């Protein structure tokens, strides 16, 4: 088979696969899990060397679905007025049975002079869908369900 024919066949196969996946996306809504809920339950200053302060942010999540949900990743930013935002991604690696509530902690760093000021936490918690079809889309990076979280509070010392 000539080189151009192979390239065209490969291109057509990718287009067909994409069309099938896009055509099936409306079904994903029917097969998707209920969104878990998430909230910040505490923010503590756990270390302050006079230059930077390390915070521990405690996040509580609740599985609102009838299936077990596997939380995989948290992308988050912590902002305080007058300082560069702290941005990080962490592995959540938490499995929530149906109706269960559990907590995990995230670290953050802010300048020491900002201790005592309110911080804003913006986060997205990503989970693996429990149903086979939507899990396949997740594994192919086509569908990444997540819950957004935003909170403003002053960390306790």
Which CATH top level class of the largest domain fits? Mainly Beta
- How are the strands ordered across the major sheet? 4-3-6-7
Task: Average the pLDDT over all residues and give the rounded result.
Answer: 85
Shape: globular
Largest sheet: 4 strands, antiparallel
Strand content: over 45%
What letter string, H or E per element, gives the SSE order?
HEEEEEEHE
Structural class: alpha+beta
Distance between the termini: 71 Å
Topology-level CATH name of the largest domain: Immunoglobulin-like
Write the CATH homologous superfamily of the largest domain.
Immunoglobulins
Q: Helical proportion? A: 10-25%
What is the CATH-assigned architecture of the largest domain?
Answer: Sandwich
| Radius of gyration, whole Å | 21 Å
DSSP helical segment count? 2
Note poorly predicted spans.
none
Task: Describe, in plain words, how this protein is organized in 3D.
The chain is 24% helix and 48% strand. The protein is of the alpha+beta class and 157 residues long. It has two domains: 1-31; 34-153, Immunoglobulin-like. Strands 4-3-6-7 form a four-stranded antiparallel sheet, with no helix packed on it. The protein starts with a helix and ends with a strand. The model has no long low-confidence stretch (mean pLDDT 85).
Give the gist of this structure.
24% of the residues lie in helices and 48% in strands.
Write the layout of secondary structure elements.
Elements: H1 3-31, E1 37-48, E2 52-62, E3 69-80, E4 86-96, E5 101-111, E6 119-128, H2 132-139, E7 146-153
Antiparallel strand pairs: 1-2, 2-5, 3-4, 3-6, 6-7
